[in-house]
């Protein structure tokens, strides 16, 4: 049986397969049905591309200018393994038949290397540095699909969703931060039909694993701030170096988050208010919690007022910074769920609601179908009536069946009257927030 990530089984005729898949592709575009010999990983990607309203004749958009590209290259973690990529895949990039590319976690191509003649050919489909090759922008393709499914994959010829890319075949593998397992980006080789072989997929997989091993061996920057992970988890993780992270208890998670959010420090009275609200709490209770936390933090924790002696960065900061920069895709990619969701500490609840409200507001204003779809597919967004309304309004009429059905179910569950306007749901940023928010 053909492995799902490989394009061709042994002995298959590439030309025959191309013809069959091209016919299936056209049938999907006209009728919406997908039949053999289309692999399930490709069928799922075509459906995602259609939901994102990707036009089948479009080119990948170029999002980064020269200055932005240079800055992204200089600061991106994968810059540290580019020499390794060149060492392992350099021969491929120089043989005149292949291209080596590296994209960031959002599908934006940062590096492209290979024979100048082949690179000129690739320019016709905007396979160039600075272009965005995420599925939501460029349809099914190896870098974008590898990022979408977080797995190495081959995309063969007519399996590409967009026709300008169908003369090419590519294989790509995701690369993760070895300490946090955060997705950093993807390494890809692109060329002709000969890449539809187990060897090419195994090669990019091995290269990605080698890159992760190399990143694990590198010492962190001397001035790297400790990282506190608080999104989507009830107990925070504190990372202070290459070793195993420290898992904090729930109260200690709240204290460290509140102090990280207020670098100027908090008085004992104010910290108690942020933690316990108006409850009558003996001051000894807070001092006891801080005493138990001090051996974990050491000299990082100071008093009078209670404060951190060095910066502690949080994943909450990563999302907030991306929102301030107007980079909604990065903010959503970094958002792993509500901040300390089990916490009822007033200061934590305020930070949690503020961040979620800012994210949702940005989503509703931007009205990007792919981003809206990504939100409602999460545990924290699956019942978000307002975002479902925005998604239905942002999709073309033929693609509204799923959100329309979900809207009917949510309205019924919330005891709301069905939308009798006859118009697509608007989902604008001024409509009431979802029930229960």
From TrEMBL:
The protein's UniProt keywords, in alphabetical order, are: DNA-binding
> Which stretches of sequence are listed as region Disordered?
416-437
Query: Where does the OmpR/PhoB-type domain lie?
Result: 243-308
Q: Which Pfam families match?
A: GAF (PF01590)
This chain belongs to the protein called GAF domain-containing protein
Organism from which the protein derives: Streptomyces glaucosporus
């Amino acid at each position: 049986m053909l492995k799902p990530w490989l394009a061709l089984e042994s002995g298959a005729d590439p030309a025959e397969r191309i013809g069959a898949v091209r016919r299936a592709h056209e049938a999907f575009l006209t009728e919406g049905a997908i039949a053999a010999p289309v692999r399930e990983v490709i069928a799922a990607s075509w459906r995602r591309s259609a939901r994102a309203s990707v036009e089948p004749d479009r080119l990948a958009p170029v999002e980064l200018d020269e200055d932005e590209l240079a800055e992204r290259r200089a600061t991106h973690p994968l810059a540290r393994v580019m020499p390794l990529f060149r060492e392992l895949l350099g021969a491929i990039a120089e043989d005149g038949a292949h291209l080596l590319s590296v994209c960031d976690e959002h599908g934006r191509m940062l590096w492209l290397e290979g024979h100048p003649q082949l690179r000129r050919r690739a320019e016709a489909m905007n396979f160039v540095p600075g272009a965005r090759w995420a599925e939501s922008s460029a349809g099914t393709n190896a870098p974008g699909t590898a990022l979408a499914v977080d797995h190495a994959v081959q995309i063969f010829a007519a399996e590409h969703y967009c026709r300008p890319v169908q003369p090419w075949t590519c294989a790509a593998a995701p690369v993760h931060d070895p300490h946090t397992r955060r997705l950093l980006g993807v390494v890809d080789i692109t060329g002709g039909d000969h890449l539809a072989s187990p060897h090419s997929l195994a090669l990019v997989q091995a290269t990605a694993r080698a890159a992760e091993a190399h990143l694990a061996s590198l010492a962190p920057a001397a001035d790297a701030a400790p990282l506190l992970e608080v999104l989507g988890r009830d107990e925070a993780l504190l990372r202070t170096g290459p070793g195993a992270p420290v898992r904090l208890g729930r109260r200690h998670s709240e204290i460290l988050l509140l102090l990280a959010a207020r670098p100027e420090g908090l008085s004992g009275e104010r910290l108690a208010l942020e933690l316990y609200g108006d409850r009558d709490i003996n001051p000894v209770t807070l001092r006891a919690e801080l005493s138990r936390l001090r051996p974990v933090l050491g000299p990082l924790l100071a008093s009078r007022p209670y404060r951190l002696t060095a910066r502690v960065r949080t994943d909450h900061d990563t999302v907030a910074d991306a929102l301030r920069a107007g980079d909604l895709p990065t903010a959503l990619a970094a958002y792993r769920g509500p901040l300390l969701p089990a916490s009822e500490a007033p200061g934590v609840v305020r930070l949690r609601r503020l961040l979620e409200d800012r994210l949702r507001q940005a989503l509703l204003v931007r009205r990007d179908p792919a981003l809206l779809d990504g939100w409602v597919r999460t545990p924290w967004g699956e019942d978000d009536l307002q975002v479902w309304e925005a998604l239905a309004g942002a999709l073309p009429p033929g693609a509204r069946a799923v959100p329309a059905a979900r809207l009917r179910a949510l309205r019924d569950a919330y005891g709301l009257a069905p939308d009798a306007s006859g118009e697509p749901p608007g989902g604008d940023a001024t409509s009431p927030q979802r029930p229960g928010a």
